[in-house]
Amino acid sequence: MKAGLWIGIGVGIALMLVVVSLAVGGMFINRQVWAGAPAVTPQTGGGWGFSGWPGCGGMGYLGAAPGTGVSGCPGTGWDGRWGRGTVPTSTLTLEDARQAVERYIIGLGLPNLEIAEVMEFENNFYAIVREPDTGIGAMELLVDKWNGAVGPEMGPNMMWNGKYGMHRGGWMMMGGSTALANTITPEEAAQIAQRWLDVYRPGATVEDADPFYGYYTIHTLRDGEIEGMLSVHGTTGQVWYHTWHGRFVRMMGEEE
Asked: What's the DSSP call for residue 154?
């Protein structure tokens, strides 16, 4: 009788442990699925590249195109209407993207900024917004090619931007009083970028460096045509290649 009682108690304890383990495991899995944070992986050559962008909650993304009735994340190719990996057939134009960026700037309450250029890539539209009085870039933006949602570009624009980026513990704290000055010159940044390309993307060359507060962004070329872009930290010289754009299509702006 006693043996049977102890066996019953042992079975009950074992079942309880199984239930607790499943509950804890489910909480952990659910947290990973809904965390919505960018997955970041180290990139050779001292830079960092985003290997994925599973969510954009709290990242400052605003404004799908009027009439779409949807919200989304620029450049993800998914805004809740389509299954992952399914690409819609109709995309916005460069002019649509420019207008979306203009509305975004107005919404920020920063009328002193201007659009320097808008580029179309396979995965998204990309825009540089700058201060007209200084000529220094204020921010880099992405525009979703299908719904017009506009938001800050991930990477250096958030992590290295000393005035308009991730500043004093907040995402896109616009107009902060502390601006990080670049100690590396544009020419030095271009030289650093070229050395990095020679090692990790042989055959690619650089254009002039566009200055931002804390870093430079540089278009990369192959056979004289734009291939992509990278950024160079304005103090350390760290290189961060922009892996999220895809193939270059066309552009409007300064170099058009």
From this structure: S
Closest to 201 in 3D by CA, of 159, 234, 229: 229
Q: Which amino acid is at 141?
A: L
pLDDT in tens, the chain (256 residues): 556 666 666 666 766 665 555 444 444 333 322 222 232 233 333 333 333 333 333 334 344 443 333 334 444 433 333 333 445 556 899 999 999 999 999 999 887 899 999 999 999 999 999 999 999 999 999 999 999 999 999 999 999 999 997 533 444 444 444 457 999 999 999 999 999 999 999 999 999 999 999 999 999 999 999 999 999 999 999 999 999 999 999 998 544 4
- Tell me the domain boundaries of the chain: 52-253
d(Cα 80, Cα 34) in Å, to the nearest integer?
Answer: 14
Phi, psi of 193 (to 5 degrees): -60, -40
Using CA of residue 95, residue 159, residue 211, residue 44, what is the dihedral sign?
Answer: negative
